Protein 1
Amino acid sequence: MQFVKPKKALGQHFLNNKIVAEKIVESLSDYQNILEIGPGTGILTQFLLKKKIDLRLVEIDNESVSFLISKLKINKNIIYNQDFLKLNLSELFENKNFSIIGNFPYNISSQILFKIIDNRELISEMCGMFQYEVAERICEKEGTKKYGILSVLTQAFFDTKLLFEVPNKFFVPPPKVNSAVILLKRKKNLKINCNEKLFFKIVKISFQQRRKTLRNSLKQLNLTDNLREHIIFDKRPEQLSVNQFIDLTNLINQDLKY
């Protein structure tokens, strides 16, 4: 397969190993409706086309779109030539659930993840390539420095698994770091047992000053002195599990009502 000249401005490193590509595609379990983000040269797409699925592609680069149409004979009607972050996901499969797959551009991978979380009612599964350190943070459990906002917000709604590492030599151009493929499977219960808007706010504020105890990092919420004496506020954010963040949200939500 002839490669399209990569656009460095897009932050894209094109996977150039068919064995890895097929392994990524076979990691999905839901093959009914699939959206591929940033297909580029179509190294994942060629394997997806062999399956009986409703496939859609979103690709911002015009050159890559032309390549996919001419070389892989892909129907242009299933390609969205635009920015994934601006795409209305509810319109893709007529509000039906779908899976996401892709070798994500490093410079927007966290934004892609946040959009997946925001659209979790539509997205049942995701298998994607991230910078290795980002993949670790997404899947990390509490108690380490790698555990943070991405970990808590993703794991609140998805089961996460780091599947395998991908050396930088398998990309064109090769990035300076290795990558990893992770799998997200949406949890059966779409709702968490707390005020979700407040939950997101608390998690983000807590980790913005992660070296401080919650008693200090959450000062801006103007909590009552009585609540701030609770033992949970002695902890730093990285020490709290997802369920403990949910408990913390319920405590604060009750306090804010008074």
Protein 2
Amino acid sequence: MKKSLYFSLIFLAMFTACKKGFPVDDDGLLITTRSDCYVSSFEILGADYQTVRSKAAVVDTTAQTVNVEVLFGTDLKNLYPQFTLVTDAKLDPKIPGKVDFSDLSNPKQWTVVSGNRKVKKTYTVYLTVQKIN
């Protein structure tokens, strides 16, 4: 009897703690009141999940660009870009895995969407390959 009462109380506590009404987006992420919308840093990894940057990426939040130079000899078809975003923001489209950056004349673009889902800013990632002297 005590066990069933105990489990009933736990179930009741869990049920009331999971109130509906918190707004979520299509990805199941909480929609907040934050309108900030920017990339704070950028990393790019190779197939071995190690950085392939030759120097720090330059993120320009005004021009909405990311400039990154990768090491000479990097396999540009198998790169894993990683964005660090402001709190509660999300990236569109999602990055499901490796990205092909081999067409350097066609930079990649991603859109940062604010926590309140009302502000959207498209960032262009310009990738260059380190020159060997």
